[in-house]
Amino acid sequence: MTKSYTKKIKILRIIARLNVGGPAIHTILLSEKINNDKYSTKLVAGPVPSNEGDMSYLADEKDVTVSYLNNLQRELSPKDDLKALSELLSIIKKFQPDIIHTHTAKAGFIGRGAAILYNSFRKNKVKTIHTFHGHVFHGYFSPLKTKLFLNIERALAKHTDTIITITNRQQEEILALGIGKKEQHRMIPLGLDLERFYINKNTSFLHTTYSIPSEKKLIGIVARFTQIKNLKMFIRVANIMYQKDKNLHFFMIGDGEDRDMLEAYTNETMASSYITFTGFLKNLPDIYSSLDLVLLTSNNEGSPVSIIEAMTSGTSVVSTSVGGVPDLFTKYGNKFLVNPDDDVAMANAASEILLPHNNQLFIEEHQGATYSKYNFNRLVDDLMNTYKELTHESIYVTA
């Protein structure tokens, strides 16, 4: 008698590091949800530097086991990169995945490099997917290094089965840069665990914790403190707004390599009495519900989680119009997008959105729609369909 069964599809998921931000949340949730009777998922990550917020606690909460490669570093290092490549090849040989799915630039480089080497010795090739959560081709590195990375991505795209972007605009940018062909690309928006933001009503957390008078309106930014986030702009905008309205207080929520510089700049501009640095905080639903307005000042973004979480929480947002940010705003919301480094425009837009009528309309247009579009159930369905297409859900028969 013969018995037919469906083999589990094995997914090896690789990310450079589980630092605070959307990619870490995204990969941890996927590793939790796509690990069932049809799929087996293994998550590999590099270490988080000591000056960045670490989200490995979320993996612990979700009961996701992470295999750490200490040599998988963010910076280019031939010695460390070769070690990481060798270690990853050993994991691939042992796990024998059907699909290698990489997230973020460095993981995409090392992970797909390992897949190319692995496939060179195999008849049945492992499939490869790479997700661009953002890209490093603007505002991160010198022109020479940017050109190098661009050429690497173009070469790797030739050995990638599916290239995922998280917004339509990002997909257009990646294609315009000559990375992959249209038929390789698939746009799949982020998916996040948003219910805790949607239902949270703790509007007094920041006022109470930091002893801010209840009548003051709170404006914040939630970000990694790194150059691409352009956080000096937040401080300058805070200065402009506070000079016009003393009934405001500002929060910089996060941490990173630029924190000392930003605190010094705040002191230099005499803004320390109305700007509070909180460090990295875990209870983000309470934070967003406490804020009257979230700002984002970045010079480059993919699909920023801080905006998605803020909108889902019923908090208004003003942002620079970069990367995939405009895709998160409705036609009405577009009036609250400004050019990078236009401090006056952001301060004016922020003052306008704080008016009760504008604030209410913004929330009505964005809260429910954002929750529906970016909740992780939709993401899981989208990716499982992608995996099925690549593997054809092979059926095996045994005696």
Looking at this protein, list some descriptive labels.
single chain, 399 residues, alpha/beta, Rossmann fold, 7-stranded parallel β-sheet, 6-stranded parallel β-sheet, 15 helices, globular, disordered C terminus
What does this 3D model show about the protein?
With 399 residues, this protein is an alpha/beta fold. The chain folds into 2 domains: 9-191 and 376-391, Glycogen Phosphorylase B (Rossmann fold), CATH 3.40.50.2000; 194-374, Rossmann fold (3-Layer(aba) Sandwich). It is 42% helix and 19% strand. It has 15 helices and 15 strands. It has helices at 22-33, 56-61, 78-95, 105-119, 143-157, 168-176, 195-198, 205-209, 231-244, 259-268, 284-290, 305-312, 343-353, 356-374, 376-391; strands at residues 3-6, 9-17, 39-46, 66-68, 99-103, 127-132, 162-165, 185-187, 217-222, 248-253, 275-279, 293-296, 316-320, 337-338, 395-398. The strands form 3 sheets. It has a 7-stranded parallel sheet, sandwiched between helices. It has a 6-stranded parallel sheet with strand order 11-10-9-12-13-14, sandwiched between helices. Strand 6 (127-132), helix 5 and strand 7 form a beta-alpha-beta unit. The radius of gyration is 22 Å and the shape is globular. The N and C termini lie close together (6 Å). Mean pLDDT is 91; it is low at 1-5 and 394-399.
